Structure formats: C-alpha cells, structure tokens
C-alpha cells in the first residue's frame, strides 16, 4: 500500500498522461498515485484513461488552476 | 448560495464543455465570421503581417517579397493597420477571451518553467509551426478547419499531413521528454 506523488506541474499534454501510465505500470495492486497537474486538459484525459482502465479516480482542486488526481490501482 | 456553488456556474463557467458543444459553436461562429467579414477564420496570417510591419518600420521592404505580391496579402501593407486588419483584431479577441474564461473559472495561474529543454522545444516548435503555417497558407484553423469547411482539397491534404506530423511529433516527444 505505497503512495506515490507525481509532479507534473508546468507540463503540457500529453506528458502528464504518459508519465502517469508509465508510473502506474510499475505500481503494485493497492498502491495509490497522486498526480499534480496545472494543465486543464490533463484534468480531462488522465481521469478518462484511468476510469477506462477500471481504476478508482478522484480529482481535487487544490488551488486556482491546480489539481491533484488521485488514482488507486485497485486491480 | 455562493455563485461558485450554483449548478449553472459549474456547468457553463467552471467545467469544460463537451467536444460536441465546442464543435457546434465553432461551426456556427465560423459561418457568422464568414458572413460578416467575407473570410473564414484564420490566425497565422496576422503573424506574417505583424512581422512585416515591424520589419517595414525598421526600414525594410516586405512589399518586395513574393508573399506580398499576392494582392490579398498586399492590402495589409498598403491600406491596413493593426486595428483595421481583421485577423489581427481576431487574434487579440482569442487572447482576451481565453484570459476571461480562465479568470471566470478561477483557473488563472502563471506556470513555472519546468526545464530549459521545455523552453528550447517550445521555441523551436513555435518557429517550425510558424514557418510551416506560412508556406502552407494557413495553420490548423485557416488551412484545416476553414479549408475543409470551404470544400477545399487543400484542407483534406492538410488533414492527412497533420496526422503524419502529429505521429512523428509524439514519438519525438516521448524520446525527448520521457527519459
């Protein structure tokens, strides 16, 4: 049950999605990743991909124009 | 109730619109622009004019360039200024509109530079796109979106090469930024 943080602040699409996919491939079932983004289109494509994979996803607006996407590798 | 909690604020101002809403709005607005100004939407033509105006003010002669031998392009040098060149005014509208949308949604943020590699890639990419857009007589708005809407074969050709270019670009992106 490890928790990882992925700093994608200042990165534009599709880098946050690619980095998330790469990191999640290395993670074990039950691990959680928190992806930090400030590019609004990543707020759309990262959760969209994770939900399609069947993972639990939550989005939190932490500041103006800044979000954290919390994904649980539940399978 | 605070306005930021109102469901209508969330739907219209805060959340991203669906691709369908965007597509229909773009189509309707491009048709309106065509009716009012006589030309479909374009963007990068204005950048050529801005460069040419600066060059001219420094004593250069852009009117001798092949690009400005086209009578439609030459108008920008002979009879128009920044405020009477519709493309230039439209571009200011894009910037002001985007700023307004970000401010209304409280999503305005000055982003930090991640690395000098990112800066270099943005500068090189911008120059290549600008150059490409001028020799193709348009970018993905002027040549692709407005081109296809005008039933122009050039628009469809542009579309094929956008896909090839995006494919090569994404491979490069992974190579440069994912290692």
Describe the overall structure.
- The complex is a heterodimer of chains A (75) and B (179).
- With 75 residues, chain A is an alpha+beta fold.
- Chain A is 31% helix and 35% strand.
- Chain A is built from two helices and four strands; from the N terminus they run βαβαββ.
- Chain A has helices at residues 15-26, 42-52, and strands spanning 3-7, 32-37, 56-63, 66-72.
- Chain A has a four-stranded mixed sheet with strand order 1-2-4-3, covered by helices on one side.
- The mean pLDDT of chain A is 94.
- The longest helix of chain B is centred in the last third of the chain and has 25 residues, at 153-177.
- The termini of chain B are far apart.
- Classes of the chains: A alpha+beta (75), B mainly alpha (179).
- Chains A and B meet through helix 1 of A and helix 8 of B.
Précis, in short:
With about 80 residues, chain A is of the alpha+beta class. Chain A has helices spanning about 15-25, 40-50; strands at about 5, 30-35, 55-65, 65-70.
């Amino acid at each position: 049950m490890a928790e990882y943080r992925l700093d994608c602040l200042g990165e534009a699409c599709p880098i946050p999605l690619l980095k998330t996919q790469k990191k999640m491939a290395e993670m074990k079932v039950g691990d959680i990743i928190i992806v930090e983004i400030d590019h609004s289109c990543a707020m759309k494509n990262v959760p969209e991909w994770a939900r399609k994979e069947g993972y639990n996803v939550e989005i939190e607006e932490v500041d103006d124009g800044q979000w954290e996407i919390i994904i649980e590798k539940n399978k | 109730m605070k306005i930021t909690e109102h469901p209508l604020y969330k739907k219209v101002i805060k959340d991203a619109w669906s691709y369908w809403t965007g597509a229909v709005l773009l189509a309707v607005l491009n048709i309106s622009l065509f009716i009012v100004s006589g030309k479909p939407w374009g963007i990068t033509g204005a950048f050529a004019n801005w460069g040419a105006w600066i060059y001219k003010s420094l004593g250069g002669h852009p009117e001798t360039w092949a690009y400005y031998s086209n009578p439609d392009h030459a108008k920008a040098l002979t009879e128009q200024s920044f405020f009477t060149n519709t493309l230039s005014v439209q571009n200011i509208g894009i910037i002001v509109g985007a700023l307004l949308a970000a401010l209304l949604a409280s999503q305005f943020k000055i982003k930090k530079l991640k690395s000098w590699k990112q800066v270099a890639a943005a500068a090189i990419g911008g120059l290549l796109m600008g150059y490409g857009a001028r020799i193709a007589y348009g970018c993905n708005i002027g040549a692709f979106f407005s081109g296809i809407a005008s039933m122009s074969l050039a628009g469809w050709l542009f579309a094929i090469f956008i896909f090839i270019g995006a494919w090569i670009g994404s491979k490069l992106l992974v190579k440069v930024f994912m290692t």
